[in-house]
Design a protein that fits this description.
There is one protein chain. This protein is of the alpha/beta class. It is 32% helix and 34% strand. A 5-stranded mixed β-sheet has the order 1-2-3-4-5, with helices on both faces. Helix 3 links the parallel strand 4 and strand 5. Helix 1 runs parallel beside helix 2. The longest helix is centred in the middle third of the chain and has 16 residues. The radius of gyration is 13 Å and the shape is globular. The protein starts with 5 loop residues before the first strand and ends in a 6-residue tail after the last strand. The relative contact order is 0.17.
């Protein structure tokens, strides 16, 4: 059963997987989000992207999901990126947490 406040869709094209998350990632649905992403990214996946463009809120539990995913995919040698527009709530949290130094985030932020 899908918890309220979040929608997840996954598409694969060969060995490339795109997971689109819409809504919020928080304590109430983080386990569901983690399970759905893990189900979409199989051992045959070579590249994975999580699109957070339509995520309006991520709490610390949601960030734990993304950090754990980044670690798991690095160990599995699966190329991983996040999609979050500059200035979006998801992008701000990703940058403030330091996750953007570990994972590629598109579109790229301004040059510093």
């Amino acid at each position: 059963m899908t918890p309220p406040g979040v929608t997840i869709t996954a598409r694969s094209d060969g060995d490339i997987v795109l997971v689109v998350v819409t809504g919020e990632i928080d304590l109430s649905n983080a386990d569901y989000v983690e399970r759905e992403i893990a189900t979409a990214i199989t051992n045959r996946t070579m590249q994975a992207a999580i699109d957070l463009s339509d995520v309006g809120y991520i709490d610390s539990v949601g960030m734990r999901v993304l950090y754990a995913l980044a670690g798991r995919l690095e160990t599995a040698q699966i190329k991983f990126k996040l999609v979050a527009p500059a200035g979006s709530p998801a992008r701000r949290v990703i940058e403030l947490s330091g996750l953007s130094s570990m994972v590629e985030v598109e579109p790229p932020g301004p040059a510093r």
